[in-house]
Amino acid sequence: MNAKIAGIGFYVPERIVTNEELTEVMDTTSEWIVERTGIEERRYAEKHKDTTSTMAAEAAKIAIERAGLTAEDIDFIVFATLSPDYYFPGSGVLLQRHLGIKNIGCLDIRTQCTGFIYGISVADQYIKSGMYKNILVVGAELHSAGLDFSTRGRNVTVIFGDGAGAAVLQATEEDKGILTTNLHADGEFAEHLAYFNPGTHGGVFLGDKSDLTYEGEPEFGGMHLTQEMMDKGDIFPHMNGRYVFKHACEKFPAAIKEACEATGHTPDDINMLIPHQANLRISQMIQLGLGIEDERVYNNIQKYGNTTAASIPIALCEAWEKGLIKDGDLVCLAAFGSGFTWGAALIRW
Ligand code: ACO
């Protein structure tokens, strides 16, 4: 039994936020943002309208309909996000509720930018083992609720946007679908791209501190937020940008090559590469390193920013809607992100 992508969908909030708009609240310029990241605008969710799970539901409904199914046909949900509606329970059960499905299992994945790749890998195994037939895999993020809109947070805030993407993975006897996935992680670098609070870290970093850009130790409040955390900015994501850039440029191509080797292909065989939309400059470095021409890579970070777990399904869906992915194409998905985690998937469409 193979697992094919039977339907895909995406949803982004209506509100477009341009780089110019960000210059009104922080010391940055559109030129700086475009030059370093390629991002021109992103979408921000509307308060009291969109949440991570409602955006996921919008994307999921499209994917389910395109698969020719109804919500009752879904056997299992895999939900990837780093920006859940609640600290607990995870957003998977909320998505299940929005879709009006009862009883099926919901699994939440916390591997950040690689969440969708981890998600389809899990779904692929369940389908191959015969346990489930139709699995909904979703990546959704509502970053705008958790960013630092002062100049202090500008290196992180300008990069991220909100949105959701979904895919229905379906059992098939046809010779198509997920050919291989590879998943990797190295927790040694956990603090180089992280959001520490609320958490149980105890105020100390136990990992390798060399090259860490965070100075000192994070404020600790157990699972509570404190005034000290707010004053210090410890309630926002921390990113060692240059370090992330360097590791991403090594790990992305390694995962793509591994997926090709595992299936007897080379990067020349890939018809469409969908890299996680971390930063346009990272995508260009990968493309250059693997010798993949512009026509065989799809990027849309220019319009949506980095939507973390949602970026791959959004880009995959948009490329497919534009007719850039056709039956029989070899499609490669690849990601790198916080953890660090990285991985790739190769799909015969
Ligand atoms: N506007 C203007 N100036 C800025 C901004 C901004 N938004 N952000 C940082 N700067 C300034 C810094 O303060 C610094 O000033 P200084 O030299 O006076 O100290 C200067 O620009 C250079 O800062 P760096 O952080 O060293 O800038 P860098 O050239 O590394 O670019 C960036 C930062 C774009 C974040 C880059 O490191 C990067 O792209 N890293 C990869 C990280 C990434 O893509 N993360 C995405 C999320 S993770 C993922 O999805 C894999």
What does this structure look like?
With 349 residues, the chain is an alpha/beta fold. The protein has a domain at 2-174: Thiolase/Chalcone synthase (Peroxisomal Thiolase, Chain A, domain 1), CATH 3.40.47.10. Helices cover 32% and strands 22% of the residues. The chain has a five-stranded mixed β-sheet with strand order 1-7-6-4-5, with helices on both faces. It has a four-stranded mixed β-sheet with strand order 8-13-12-11, with helices on both faces. A two-stranded antiparallel sheet has the order 2-3. Helix 3 (52-66) crosses helix 4 (91-99) and helix 8 (241-262) packs across helix 9. It is globular and about 55 Å long. The model has no long low-confidence stretch (mean pLDDT 96). The chain binds acetyl coenzyme *A. Acetyl coenzyme *A (ACO) is lined by residues 28, 32-33, 36-37, 113, 154-155, 158-159, 193, 239, 241-242, 244-245, 248, 278-279, 282, 306, 336-337.
